[in-house]
């Protein structure tokens, strides 16, 4: 056997450079890194050696550089992913939140936190967490529950099995999720005689499981029997590249489609059968059809509570759920009729068997009425009042083309965008609403831009999210990856303040004004963004916002636009109840009233299950 002597770190990098997808691209085209004593010497040296063919990108925070990596993978529909390496201790645990985000959203990312010495010789090393009773514990054990595959590399040759296992997890549609290879720092530096064959080029093909024949027959029977079927399109539609198949299926069989946050942009927004968003932040059209549906066909969705309105949006007592999912775990949830399969393959197989079957037509007025609500919420306001999130969304929509991608994650915006944004092309809508992680947005925008450089990337976020994590804005400038960022400054955590009041609470600790303070914060976001190197401007109204957006389009550098907004306005039309537990006893009348209303709403949850 021919061997080659390399450090474990060099072997890891060399292995990654040989892994391709069926398009001929590297599965992992590069690595984000913030170095420390846990990874600078060995992994740093290995990455330096390949810097021309396998780029290393330097981020400013471990969590957000991992967000960029995860957004990249999402924008690539999971066909490619990035590696992220950190030092031990705080560098590593900073990345745990991002790992959880990837886990919830079923997105691939290869995390390589440095770990303590396997030899234990210098223990305790700087930043080592010492467990009194379990010597095998390190800070990196925090990754275990939020990794799809976790491994601790304590001998170099473990990579011979760990790396193929990592790649299979990253590339398999069913198992897809974050992989954490916790890499002991002394092991990174150790040499080993590796078989040369380990570094031979390998192609990872996308698996597209076909449905089981009997399960397919049961699904076909259910669809044939349904008078009011509804497809709920989730992220799996985009990851499977099933948009065209979905369009063909919906048209042929006249099944209307509603979209989850992850599934939005599966069908063109203008398609008559696309009823828009469903659930808590649903359109009036989709939620009306959902209420009557006798067959809810989940297509690549996890049925998160925002999608199901905490299981109160489907009101037909005889409704069934058909869950088409590549992941058995998702397809068996909620007593669904399960069809385990790739979304595209499943749609094609169902279509073949269904023949000319078509469901009764839906009322076209439903969508017309909803689009009138969208116009009312997004048309430029008259007068001097502060604009709403909806008004800002309208301006961004009017100033962006079909190729634009809007990026968002948390605050009041995701609900408004889910309802109001019109995405005409697949992947034109990029939300983290699995983890809805404040601080994902700017880093996420950077990752999306790196994945799809030909498309315009517009990040929308609140003042709270901006303050939580903004430093990858500087990275976007350093890397020449231009993004447009629109900051909606409503002076606080507006959506949680509204939720607080809706559950009977006093406005407390959410808005800057109602949080304990000596000096109320008055933040100049444009000056801050400018200090990070961006072009930045503050605008006074929607007209000025549109003019600034037009300027931002031709900016070469990342361009930040700040606008003051009203913290209290949301789009009333559409929507559904969301289960947020209200206190059972309180000395305050407002809470008791909210509890009473809560119990009434809760009675409608799974009312007939
Ligand atoms: C990391 C993280 N911490 C806390 C939350 C809970 N949370 C959701 S939205 C929100 C406020 C967001 O404020 P801002 O970005 O200004 O948006 P707004 O609600 O004002 O629209 C908070 C605290 C979260 N989603 N993520
Ligand atoms: Mg805010």
TrEMBL record:
Q: Provide the family line.
A: Belongs to the TPP enzyme family.
Hydrolase listed as a keyword: yes
Q: Provide the E.C. number(s) assigned to this enzyme.
A: 3.7.1.22
Q: Which organism is it from?
A: Martelella mangrovi
For the Thiamine pyrophosphate enzyme N-terminal TPP-binding domain, which residue ranges apply?
51-128
Q: Where would one find the signal peptide in this protein?
A: none
Domain Thiamine pyrophosphate enzyme TPP-binding stretches:
413-562
Q: Does the keyword Hydrolase apply?
A: yes
UniProt xrefs under NCBIfam families? myo_inos_iolD (TIGR04377)
Q: Tell me one Pfam family matched here.
A: TPP_enzyme_C
User: Which Gene Ontology terms cover its molecular function?
Assistant: 3D-(3,5/4)-trihydroxycyclohexane-1,2-dione hydrolase activity
Q: Which UniProt keywords apply?
A: Hydrolase, Thiamine pyrophosphate
- Thiamine pyrophosphate enzyme central domain ranges (all copies): 216-350
Q: Which PANTHER family match?
A: 3D-(3,5_4)-TRIHYDROXYCYCLOHEXANE-1,2-DIONE HYDROLASE (PTHR18968:SF9), THIAMINE PYROPHOSPHATE ENZYMES (PTHR18968)
Q: Upper lineage ranks?
A: Bacteria, Pseudomonadati, Pseudomonadota, Alphaproteobacteria, Hyphomicrobiales
Q: Which domain of life is it from?
A: Bacteria
Q: What is this protein called?
A: 3D-(3,5/4)-trihydroxycyclohexane-1,2-dione acylhydrolase (Decyclizing)
InterPro entries the UniProt entry points to: DHS-like_NAD/FAD-binding_dom, Myo_inos_IolD, THDP-binding, Thiamin_PyroP_enz_cen_dom, Thiamin_PyroP_enz_TPP-bd_dom, TPP-bd_CS, TPP_enz, TPP_enzyme_TPP-bd
